[in-house]
Amino acid sequence: MTATTPAQTQQMDVSKHGLPVTIITGFLGSGKTTLLNHILTNQEGLKTAVLVNEFGEVGIDNDLLITTSEDDTMVELSNGCICCTINNDLMEAVYKVLERSDKIDYLVVETTGLADPLPVALTFLGTELRDLTRLDSIVTVVDSENYSLDLFNSQAAYNQIAYGDIILLNKVDLVDPADADLLEVKLRDIKQDARIIRTTQAQVPLPLILSVGLFESDKYFNESQESHGHDHNHEHEHRHDHHNHENCDHDHGHCEHEHEHDHSSHLEADGFTSISFEREQPLAIRKFQYFLDNQLPASVFRAKGILWFDESPKRHVFHLSGKRFSLEDEEWGDRAHKTQLVLIGQNLDQDKLKAQIENCFCMETAERGKGFSD
Ligand SMILES: Nc1nc2c(ncn2[C@@H]2O[C@H](COP(=O)(O)OP(=O)(O)OP(=O)(O)O)[C@@H](O)[C@H]2O)c(=O)[nH]1
Question: Span 272-358: which CATH code?
Answer without folding.
Answer: 3.30.1220.10
